[in-house]
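Worked Example 4.2. Consider the chain below.
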Amino acid sequence: MPSRNAIVQELTVADISRIIEMAWEDRTPFEAIAVQFGLNESAVVALMRLHMKPSSFRMWRKRMAGRVTKHGVLRGAKLLRHRASHTRQ
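Applying the procedure from the previous section yields the following structure tokens:
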């Protein structure tokens, strides 16, 4: 598997722009970015840090921290808890 730096170096300006756009979208999980561009969450964070102003990056990180819609694992866990809390016995 290629390294994170090798993948980021192969990205075009249009790819980087699209990744940043997807990262800002509330309903686009990091897993979708990984499938399309081969970047995991930590690589997306590194790319965002490199290509954004520091204040914009901090605002984005604060907004994304723990957001259920950005993490497929959290989304699935929440849905399971939600359904289980409403089952009748």
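Residues 72-85 form the longest helix (14 residues). Residues 53 and 59 are 10 Å apart (CA to CA). Compare this with Example 4.1 before moving on.
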